[in-house]
Amino acid sequence: MAETVTSDVAGSGLFARIQQPGGGKTDYLIRIDAREIDPANLRLQVTIALIATSSGQELFTRKAELPLGISSGRYNSIVFTQTPKFSADVNSTSWSGQRMLTGSMQYAFEQLMPVMKAGVAEYFQHLAEQSTARKMQAASLPELIVGGDRTVELARIRNRQLIAAKNQQLPLLLRERKTAELTDLVVTIEQAILDLNHDSEVAKDQAQQAAAGGESSLQIDEIRGLGICYRERIELLKPILGALKEEIANRNR
């Protein structure tokens, strides 16, 4: 059973690099706990946890219930580590009863892999967002203007950083940049406002379609939130644009 589980998960396409036990330190640990919760109806509950090896911190947990179609006995604590370095290391397993058919295991992991992939993707997206947020905190005003955001949280962070840049960076930029550079920035801002206006309208339409299609409230709120952030950014960019145009006009007198 342990070999079957390890083989199915390792061959799922989720993991980029795999190493055998004792092959070196791994970055992450995937713990899979599988147990029958309803032997009469032959259902298996599988809990998956992603754990940072260095800290032991559990980064996310997912559960799935799978119909098996044959009694599997009982087994648990199937543990192995994963990407970027993966170690198929089964720490412990106890097993009794009728051996599960290979076809049942294949079906189980067909159901399980999307759950794992969604959880891993969510975690690494969170890491990417944290990295993007740190970069925005150190970004210049022009860099903040041209960036795009995939989530409401990142869009709100960019808006807050634009407020800070307007007060902290804009006065120096107006004094030290050449007229041609200021003109280029005016063009960039006007283009950004045009794009933001378009994106906000698209987000509004998408939110309406999602609501009509019965999508989850979280998804609808995310789409609406992006539209709100785009409109807020337009209002933040307008005074910056006005200050740039005024400085250019003063220089040309």
Brief overview:
This protein is α+β, with helices and mostly antiparallel strands and 253 residues long. Helices cover 57% and strands 14% of the residues.
Give an account of the 3D structure.
It is a single chain. The protein has about 250 residues and is of the alpha+beta class. About 55% of the residues lie in helices and about 15% in strands. The protein has seven helices and four strands; from the N terminus they run H-E-E-E-E-H-H-H-H-H-H. Strands 3-2-1-4 form a four-stranded antiparallel beta sheet, covered by helices on one side. The longest helix is centred in the middle third of the chain and has 36 residues.
DSSP E strands, number? 4
> Helicity level, as a percent range?
55-70%
- Calculate Rg over CA atoms: 26 Å
Straight-line N-to-C gap: 83 Å
Main sheet: strand order: 3-2-1-4
* Structural class designation: alpha+beta
Q: What is the number of helices?
A: 7
Rounded average pLDDT: 77
H-E string: HEEEEHHHHHH
State which percent range the strand residues make up. 5-15%
- Describe the main β-sheet briefly: 4 strands, antiparallel
Report the uncertain regions. 70-103
- Describe the global form: elongated
